[in-house]
Amino acid sequence: xxxDPIKILIVDDDEDVLIELERLLEGEGYSTATAxxxxxxxxxxxxxxxxLLLVDEHLANVDAHAxxxxxxxRQPNAFRF
Length: 81
Prior knowledge:
single chain, globular, four-stranded parallel β-sheet, 81 residues, alpha/beta
C-alpha cells in the first residue's frame, strides 16, 4: 500500500525561493502548499494538516517568530524548521 506523501507548508515572501523550494520538494515526491504571507500561512493551517513547516525567518511586514509560534500551536505534530 502506498503511503501518503509528506505534506510541507512553505512560507516565504521571496517568489523565486518559494517557487524553487516547491519545485524541488515536489520533484522528490513531497506534497507542498505555499504561502506568500503570514495571513495566508495561517489560513492554510486552518484547512490542512502539515508534517513539516518551513518558515522564512525574515518575512516582510510580519513577526516571523510570532507567526512560527502560532503555526506550531495550530500544527502540534508537524516538524518545524
